[in-house]
Amino acid sequence: MLEVRRLKKRYGDKIALDDVSLSVGEGQMFGFVGANGAGKTTTMRIIMGVLSGDGGEVEWRGKPVGFETRRRFGYMPEERGLYAKMRVAEQITYFGQLGGMAPAAARSAADALIERLGLTERRDDDVDSLSLGNQQRVQLAVALIHDPELLVLDEPFSGLDPIAVDALAEVLAERTAKGVPVVFSSHQLDLVERLCDSVGIIKAGTMIAGGTVGDLRARESRKRLRIVVSGADPGWADRLPGTVVAKSAQDGAGRDEVVLMPSDDQEALRVAAGAGRVEHFGWQEPSLAEIFREVVA
């Protein structure tokens, strides 16, 4: 539904984006990850029309994105775009009307979001009196109020406690279940791994990896074995072929756990079996954080 092709952006001599492309289908959640300054926010701002690119295309349902199309999108900037002295309910309702809603419909939708996001007790408070986490909830409500066809969220989980993270994740899952694509950036790679259907990794303005987490794991060059052996002598792991990444001390049950990047997995099995009783021998799936470190290195 959302197609971004070969985006380019320069600031003087600095290349901010260099042929960045991504696509997000109906009901998909896309996680955009990269270091600070990698180009995530610039890409999202171009999608939303906050910035203009120097080249490339942004299409929605096969057609170029323009002003009227973007009015149907929901956007949550990394830096909060709220009116500090407006009350919570008043603010959410106001943004609903900016999105084209009738006043009564905006008030009703605001009431529902305030309850859904746990802001009922703060509905009549000024935004600047709220904690950062509650301000983040208000910002999300502003992005959701007009029932957008696409959500573009820049660091939506920043500053949230675990309960608020779960609440936000549930709200986003509800939207994707209705077919709404969601694009969000985050430095919390465990959340991206848990929530997203697909991931894009950007470095210095260039998209260097993308696909499902499973796809990225399949491309991981440093495959690791997890081996658990009981009853082995203390030096047995030194005989394993390859590089030992991690090794636990023997616990009370006399078990050793080793994570190995093997040069020969069959030889590793032979050594483990010769050292003691093999309780576990299998490939260890890398986390998204490990994949990220691998591809940006």
CATH architecture of the largest domain: 3-Layer(aba) Sandwich
Spans of 5+ residues with little confidence (pLDDT < 50)?
A: none
CATH C-level label of the largest domain: Alpha Beta
Tell me the strand percentage band.
Answer: 25-35%
**Integer average pLDDT:** 91
Number of DSSP E strands: 14
**How is the main sheet built?**
6 strands, mixed
Secondary-structure class: alpha/beta
H-E order: EEEHEEHEHHHEHEHEEHEEEHEH
Describe the structure.
This protein has about 300 residues and is of the alpha/beta class. It contains 10 helices and 14 strands. The protein has helices at about 40-50, 65-70, 90-100, 105-115, 130-145, 160-175, 190-195, 215-220, 265-275, 290-295, and strands at about 1-10, 15-25, 30-35, 55-60, 65, 75, 150-155, 180-185, 200-205, 205-210, 225-230, 240-245, 255-260, 275-285. β1 and β2 (about 15-25) form a beta hairpin. The longest helix has 16 residues, at about 160-175. The chain is elongated. It starts with a strand and ends with a helix. The mean pLDDT is about 90.
Question: What is the fold's blueprint, element by element?
Answer:
Elements (H helix, E strand, L loop, with lengths): L1 E10 L2 E11 L4 E5 L6 H9 L6 E6 L2 E2 L2 H4 L2 E4 L11 H11 L4 H14 L15 H13 L5 E5 L7 H16 L4 E4 L3 H7 L2 E6 L2 E6 L1 H7 L4 E7 L11 E6 L7 E8 L2 H11 L1 E8 L3 H9 L1
Parallel strand pairs: 3-8, 3-9, 6-7, 7-8
Antiparallel strand pairs: 1-2, 1-4, 4-5, 9-10, 11-13, 11-14, 12-13
